[in-house]
Amino acid sequence: MKTRLLILSLFFTMIGIPASLPLCAVQHKEVETSLNVDRQLEYCNTQIHHALNELRQKDGSYNFGMEPRNILSQDRQKGWNCRPATAEEWCGGFWPGILWMDYSVSKDSTVLKAAEGYTAALRHIAYEPIYDHDIGFLMFCSFGKGYDALTKTGATAADKGARRLSADYRRVICDAADSLATLFNPMVGTILSWPRNVKMFGGHNTIMDNMMNLDMMFWASRNGGNPLLYDLAVAHAKTTMQHHFRPDGSCYHVAVYDTLDGHFMKGVTHQGYADTSMWARGQSWAIYGYTMVYRYTHNPVFLQFAQKVADVYLRRLGCRLTKAGAVEADSLIPKWDFDDPDLHASKDASAACVVADALLELCHYVSGEKGQYYKTVATKMLTELSTPNYLSGKRNVSFLLHSTGHHPAGSEIDASIIYADYYYLEALLRLKNIGL
User: Fold this and answer.
1) Residue pair 174/125 in contact by the 8 Å Cβ criterion
2) Is the pLDDT of residue 19 over 90?
3) Mean pLDDT of the chain
4) Burial of 1: CB neighbours in 10 Å, binned 0-12, 13-18, 19+
5) DSSP for 33-84?
6) Residue 332: which H helix or E strand, with range?
7) What is the rounded distance in angstroms from the CA atom of residue 381 to the CA atom of residue 357?
8) Is 59 part of the annotated catalytic residue set?
9) How buried is residue 94: exposed, middle or buried, by Cβ count under 10 Å (0-12/13-18/19+)?
10) Dihedral, CA atoms, 69, 74, 79, 82, nearest 10 degrees?
11) 3-state secondary structure at position 244
12) Which of 37, 74, 160, 366 is 20 to 30 A off residue 88, Cα-Cα?
């Protein structure tokens, strides 16, 4: 694996950068919000305990090898449908990540024990032949959140168990990042997302979701992993920025490149409405992804691009400013695809969670009125998600209702989905840290 990484170091021709993108001026004043972050965090903790009760087996133990995935709208039970903790199940890391985030604020020993068990069940994935790009979601959303929780809760020399565990988690993350890097194609300049689908798409395929997995590579490069991981992540972000987007900043779901000479062939969809449409969750990955890339690189080109992809999303969502400076929209929760002509098309709360989460980070990097605008929109998104229309409450053990997974396949439509809960909780914690 190390040899392959050294071979990849031969690739680093600078990729063309688009012209600077101007900030759009907005008028804004601070507005009242009904969102109580601490109350919502308590709600999440309550739902987690309901879920853990549902997940307990007759002997009181948990089957850590089965990770929560969804609760479908037609399900009569209130508990999670679970999937095996394998590389083929891309959502496996979100539940342990949720547990670690909750533990970071609740210090709940029951949650801690569950977090350790569900995280450990994924460890083997870092040391198996790479399956696809989702190893980033699997390993960094679990082990990464675990590392954060263990190191930021004041582990001392007396707490040798936590120190040993966090050191082990760091090694696992770095090893998983090395595995992800083996999917990087130096002729193309991006990570191959789905090796199993090269024939189906007719070439090297890179999906927008893959931007999220650069987080693990950047982190590993700074925390004892191979420094080359940073360069590969930057190259992927630059190539994606150059080919994966339309002029207005909306993205294709899949970019297909020639496997021999690496040239861009086409942009298509797999989970969106059409090749030319703006799939809501895909655009949310772009907003979060480029905001995160700027966090690690401090390259203003990535900051400008993060704003461009965020602004087209907000325009299409219908965000508008009143004369009083308040942000308004009919709803801040998007249809699953902005271009689905069905007026009653299913919503995707998961996309709203990811965008709110991203904007709460992006607002720190953008000064003045526009940064405040991003914060206000994100807060209003979380406020709408925190109403009875979207909270699961007693209907099931998840946090949220009304997400959409793979609409063209008829899968997980109007469902509770684990990654919606993950980014909802992450966004709440981010907002708690910066304050309303």
Assistant:
1) no
2) no
3) 91
4) exposed
5) ----HHHHHHHHHHHHHHHHHHH--TTS---TTEEEEEE-TT--SSSPEEEE
6) none
7) 10
8) no
9) buried
10) -30
11) coil
12) 74
pLDDT at position 406: 98
Length of the chain: 436
Q: Is 245 helix (H, G, I), strand (E, B) or coil?
A: strand
Catalogue the E-assigned strands of 118-222: 184-185, 190-191, 204-207
Say if CB 398 and CB 329 are below 8 A apart: no
Q: Which of 209, 337, 357, 414 is catalytic?
A: 209
Distances (CA, A) of 255 to 204, 207, 242, 267: 8, 6, 11, 5
Among this protein's residues, is 209 annotated catalytic? yes
- The fold of 28-63+299-436 is Glycosyltransferase (1.50.10)
Share of the chain above pLDDT 90, in %: 85
Q: Looking at 102, 132, 134, 357, which residue is catalytic?
A: 134
Looking only at the bridges linking them, the beta strands covering 81-84 and 320-321 are unpaired
**Token pair recorded at residue 32:** 């009242």
What local confidence, expressed as pLDDT, does residue 163 receive? Answer: 86
Strand partners, 268: 254
Name the pTM for this structure. 0.92
Buried b (16+ CB within 10 A) or exposed e, 277-313: bbbbbbbbbbbbbbbbbbbbbeeebbbbbbbbbbbbb
pLDDT tens digit sequence for 216-264: 999 999 999 999 999 999 999 999 999 999 999 999 999 999 999 999 9
Question: How is the chain split among helix, strand and coil, in percent rounded to 5?
Answer: 50, 10, 40
Spatial separation of the C-alpha atoms in residues 426 and 172, rounded to whole Å? 22
Alpha carbon 259 to chain centroid, angstroms: 28
Alpha carbon 27 to chain centroid, angstroms: 30
pLDDT at 7 over 60: no
Provide the pLDDT for residue 162. 85
Token output for 252: 């294709």
